[in-house]
């Protein structure tokens, strides 16, 4: 790093030749190499070739995002009768809000990485007051790669004072392995019958809307591009998909999504213990970020499936609680499993 600190990167492999690289900077997934039907490996993630790129990373490629993933209206919330103001770093409609942990979120800090028997463990201590959050937070994020072709990402945290939390994995995927093209020809299935509509500032209105019969309906597999340009309010606000899909019930572990890409034959399934998944289609990508292999990532050249608690949950009492109290352990587990058609 410019200040002389050293950043370690780790490589995970499995018996089928899959290869994941993760780094202490931002507890980021740097790359994920997976074979296609012909057995050719390709990197399915967007990102950068060097640390200088990752140290800017305005689109949060590959990052572990926190303390609170996605948006909090005006950067304000109250907890146990006290009001808190978080750093504001985003304003889609001209009204500032808090996005992905603030000005210097978990994606922009140096974690401490350690190889373990099953993978890599990153730890980070977030002091009380950081970006406006109460409570000293101790976080552990682990990545492991199994011989069943599962990349397992887990986040755990404890606090010494009540706080709010929603740590999110923010990798952009392009299963073709060629992110110079849009992901609109991927087929997406999301195992949810409802989503959270947002206002123009991309903050949930608090309502839950059914997806059936709309452009938001991925209950059956459908090309991402099939309805992405439909003249429906959620899509016109976000210029594509950028919403939290809500699962019918909270389960210990459940399937969130299944994505397929016909030309490569690659399949990715996502499983999680969280109540929702944010499906985002890279609508803010505009070709200005030069990424790995010198590719300038065009509009919609990667999609994210960010398993999460609901955006702005601290300001909606009927959303699942995002509060973490002393003595409790925050636990988020997500599995990305790769296979072939
Ligand atoms: C998310 C948000 C998007 C956008 C990206 C980062 O997933 O939902 O609106 O802010 O992160 O560019």
What does this protein structure show overall?
The chain is an all-beta fold and 341 residues long. It has one domain (9-340): Beta-galactosidase, Chain A, domain 5 (Distorted Sandwich), CATH 2.70.98. It contains two helices and 26 strands. The strands form seven sheets. Strands 10-11-12-13-26-22-21-16-19 form a nine-stranded antiparallel beta sheet, with no helix packed on it. The radius of gyration is 19 Å and the shape is globular. The model has no long low-confidence stretch (mean pLDDT 97). Bound molecules: alpha-D-galactopyranose (GLA).
Q: What does the main sheet amount to?
A: 9 strands, antiparallel
Number of domains: 1
The backbone outline, from C-alpha atoms, is globular
Helix-strand sequence = EEEEHEEEEEEEEEEEEEEEHEEEEEEE
Low-pLDDT segments: none
**What's the overall average pLDDT, rounded?**
97
**How is the CATH topology named?**
Beta-galactosidase, Chain A, domain 5
Task: Bin the helical content.
Answer: under 10%
From the coordinates shown, what is the CATH architecture? Answer: Distorted Sandwich
The oligomerization state is single chain
Which structural category fits the helices and strands?
mainly beta
Give a concise summary.
With 341 residues, this protein is mainly β. The chain has two helices and 26 strands.
From the structure above, extract its key features.
binds alpha-D-galactopyranose; 9-stranded antiparallel beta sheet; single chain; about 350 residues; Beta-galactosidase, Chain A, domain 5; 2 helices; 5-stranded antiparallel beta sheet; mainly beta
């Amino acid at each position: 790093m410019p200040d002389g600190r050293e950043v370690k990167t780790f490589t995970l492999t499995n018996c089928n030749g899959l290869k994941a690289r993760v780094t202490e900077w931002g507890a980021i997934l740097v790359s994920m190499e997976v074979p296609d039907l012909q057995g050719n490996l390709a990197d399915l993630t967007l990102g950068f070739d060097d640390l200088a790129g990752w140290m800017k990373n305005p689109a949060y490629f590959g990052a572990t995002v926190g303390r609170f993933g996605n948006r909090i209206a005006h950067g304000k919330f109250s907890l146990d009768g006290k009001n808190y103001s978080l750093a504001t770093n985003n304003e889609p409609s001209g009204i500032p809000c808090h996005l992905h942990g603030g000005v210097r979120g978990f994606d922009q800090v140096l974690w401490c990485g350690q190889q373990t028997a099953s993978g890599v463990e990153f730890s980070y201590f977030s002091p009380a007051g950081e970006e406006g959050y109460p409570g000293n937070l101790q976080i552990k994020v682990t990545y492991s790669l199994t011989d069943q072709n599962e990349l397992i990402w887990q986040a755990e945290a404890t606090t010494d004072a009540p706080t709010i939390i929603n740590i999110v994995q923010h990798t952009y995927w392009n299963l073709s392995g060629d992110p110079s093209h849009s992901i609109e020809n991927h087929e997406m299935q999301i195992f949810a019958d409802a989503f959270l509509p947002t206002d123009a500032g991309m903050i949930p209105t608090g309502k839950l809307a059914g997806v059936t019969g709309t452009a938001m309906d991925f209950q059956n597999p459908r090309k991402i591009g099939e309805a992405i340009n439909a003249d429906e309010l959620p899509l016109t606000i976000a210029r594509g998909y950028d919403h939290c899909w809500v699962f019918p019930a909270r389960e210990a572990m459940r399937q969130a999504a299944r994505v397929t890409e016909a030309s490569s034959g690659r399949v990715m399934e996502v499983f999680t213990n969280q109540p929702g998944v944010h499906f985002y289609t890279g609508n803010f990508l505009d070709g200005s970020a030069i990424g790995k292999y010198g590719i300038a990532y065009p509009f919609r050249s990667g999609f994210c499936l960010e398993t999460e608690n609901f955006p702005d949950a601290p300001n909606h009492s009927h959303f699942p609680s995002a509060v973490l109290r002393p003595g409790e352990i925050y636990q988020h587990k997500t599995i990305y499993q790769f296979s072939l058609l």
